[in-house]
Amino acid sequence: LRLVAVVRAILEGEKAAVLKRDHHLPLSFHRRQEELKFSLGLQRLQHRVREIQALRDEGPGQDGAVQSPTAPKELPPLILEAVKELEAAKQQVLKRIQIWKRQQQLAGNGTIFEENLAPLQKRCENLVEVYFQLQQQVMAASAELGSELLPRLLERLNEVLSSLVKR
To answer: Could you tell me which residue ranges the STAT transcription factor all-alpha domain spans (predicted)?
Structure first.
């Protein structure tokens, strides 16, 4: 075990020296890291939408009484957080689209260019799917959101879809 610890320390030192010298990791590493970050953000967003649905479902009981008095108070902040996460995911997709466009431009100069749009299309489709789920939850919770917050949320949601379609 001691030998393994020594070898590990040496290898970590060499790795740090190489990274310090080169200042970057391979492009495939960054691309994979970006994909994982987007995937995690999307999963978190889907979980938020399910939380909103569950919170709305536990609202009024069968006899008209509210089972959870905190549910209407918790719903607006949860929806606002979900919209914020949706906008962050949109920014990641738009950044990736911009990178793809730039790579396409550089391909005219002879740079290697991967023309596969399937991963980018899958990202957009997943994001739009979550967008529609969130929009349904916002419309269903319109009574709890009030007349001031609802139009702002709908405007923010529409901006997300609009910017995705335009770019």
So the answer is: 81-141
